[in-house]
Amino acid sequence: MDGIGAIPIFVAVVENGGFTSAADRLGISKSAVSKRISQLEARLGVQLLHRSTRRISLTEAGERYFGHAVEAFAAAKEAEDAVAQLQGAPQGRLRINAPMSFGRLHIAPLIPEFLKRYPGIEIDMVMDDRVVDLVEGGFDVAIRGGVLPDSALIARKLAPCHYVICAAPGYIAKHGEPSEPGDLLNHNCVHYAYFSGAHEWTFLGPDEPITVETTGNYQVNNSEALREALIGGCGIGRLPTFIAGPDIGAGRLVRLLDQYSMPSQTFYAVFPERRHLPAKVRVFVDFVVERFGADNPYWDNQCCDP
Questions:
Q1: Do the Cβ atoms of 209 and 203 come closer than 8 Å?
Q2: Which CB contacts under 8 angstroms, 24+ apart, belong to 223-227?
Q3: Are 31 and 74 in contact (CB under 8 A)?
Q4: In this predicted model, what pLDDT tens digit does every residue of 17-67 receive, in sequence order?
Q5: What is the DSSP letter of 221?
Q6: Fewer CB within a 10 Å sphere, N or C end of the chain?
Q7: In degrees rounded to 5, what are phi and psi of residue 10?
Q8: Pick from 7-21, 69-83, 216-230: least confident
């Protein structure tokens, strides 16, 4: 049974790709991590990890052990959550995964107030635009936008995500304002690289959708960098209102073609299906919905009524 205590350490090493990063995550020394893994391998009589100066990787035995270790670790966490339900105030470590721009602009500013309200909770937030496996990554909750694939995850709607076409006043003064979607063919359009169909902009017309194949001289994989390009007068772009809202409200950007709406998406909080939803997850999601404004998020009120 001595190996049970090594399971969280082994999982952390694999998930973080090394002993040093696992030690940082766990708050213990690198030597302590290395010692526990060596003891685990000695007890099992098999090597679990290939070690090199640059990285670690799983052996065949390690891959098999890791699959069961993740399940055991998740079961242990669920047992702790079930007990925590009886202790009143939410507590424990809450690991959150959020998209980079949305997390920085709208999740991170909420954390100080959340921690003041729930001092028994510790936050570990990872912002990354990649879609990660919540169970393998050890996350309690993730913020995701768009259409969710079928999975064993539970989802709760946080807020809608609307899109607008916009440009800087200086660009409009120099190049004119499009009056209909087809006019975009005569403009330099900048694009968000990670958006599906980055160059195809679809508008919801009165009869049927209108799709325009836009062109331009700049594409970038970060929405905030795209915003900077638009404010700098590079061209016309499509931005989510959670980024463009304050700039439109302040006059740094001008909303264009506002007689046409664009297909919207939804932000969700997703979490693994569990018999006992941890109180720390429940209060976090409730807090976010409360602060966002549910179906009428505050960032839309800053600019427009999409």
A1: yes
A2: 223/101, 223/192, 224/101, 224/104, 224/105, 226/190, 226/191, 226/192, 227/253
A3: no
A4: 888 888 887 778 888 888 888 888 888 888 888 887 677 888 888 888 888
A5: S
A6: N
A7: -60, -45
A8: 69-83
pLDDT tops 80 at residue 113: yes
Closest CA to 80 of 32, 140, 136, 28: 140
- Here the tokens at position 108 are 């991170």
Q: Are 171 and 233 in contact (CB under 8 A)?
A: yes
Centroid of chain to Cα 159 = 14
Single-letter amino acid, residue 126: V
Beta carbons within 8 Å of 158's beta carbon, 6+ residues apart: 143, 266, 267, 268, 269, 285, 288, 289, 292, 294
Q: Which two tokens stand for residue 260?
A: 């046409």
The answer on pLDDT for 174 being more than 90 is yes
Instruction: Tell me the two tokens of residue 160.
Output: 């809608």
- Strands 200-204 and 209-213, sheet pairing: antiparallel
**Angle subtended at Cα 167 by Cα 172 and Cα 234, rounded to the nearest 5 degrees:** 90
CA 83 remoteness from chain centre: 29
The answer to whether 102 and 143 have CB atoms below 8 angstroms apart is yes
Q: Alpha carbon of 204 to those of 258, 302, 304: distances in Å?
A: 11, 23, 17
Predicted TM-score (pTM) of the model is 0.68
**Do the beta carbons of residue 229 and residue 190 sit within 8 Å?**
yes
Take residue 112 and report the two structure tokens written for it.
């100080």
Q: How many residues does the chain have?
A: 306
